[in-house]
Amino acid sequence: MRLNDPLVTSFLYNGKEYDIDLAFDNVLDLFDVLEDKTLRDYEKAEINLELLLNESLKGKEAIDLWNYVYEHFIEIKNKQPIEYDRLGNPMPVKENEKERFIDLDKDAEYIFASFQQAYHINLYQQQGKLHWHEFQSLLNGLPSNTIMQRIIQIRMWKPSKGESSEYKQSMRELQKVYALEEVKE
């Protein structure tokens, strides 16, 4: 995202211009389609293009265009800096850096509350209006005093020396409450 570029509402692909609806709620619908295990990949591409572009495309044409759209306009990229050792070799990524700390579906109520608290934005009233890139920026910039940021801090917490056993126990219990996956005991 560049602040001196307009928000994407259309794009050129193979010499054809397409209008694209990147309202955040429309993009969230795409993620629902992508999670649907009953659909084949080409069906997901066709459905998602219909949602975004209001175009009915089939086969390889749909798959190629969907891949382009996903890569350029939808994909959430984790922009973590690559760390290098003294010899200049890339360091392995730690396991916890690969973990997800937010789920747009499971955390919907906390995201809604956080947008209300931080920005006085009612996401239901912004359906069809708030662009996906704006939504992502606002989500990434939530202040630390919002419920969503607090939950992320809880999910990321690791015990450290100097913390009381009561505090550690309390944080472990909170991690179970806010876990994204089922916690095995």
TrEMBL record:
It comes from the Bacteria. InterPro entries: Phage_A500_Gp15. Pfam families: Phage_Gp15. This is Bacteriophage Gp15 protein. It comes from Halalkalibacter krulwichiae.
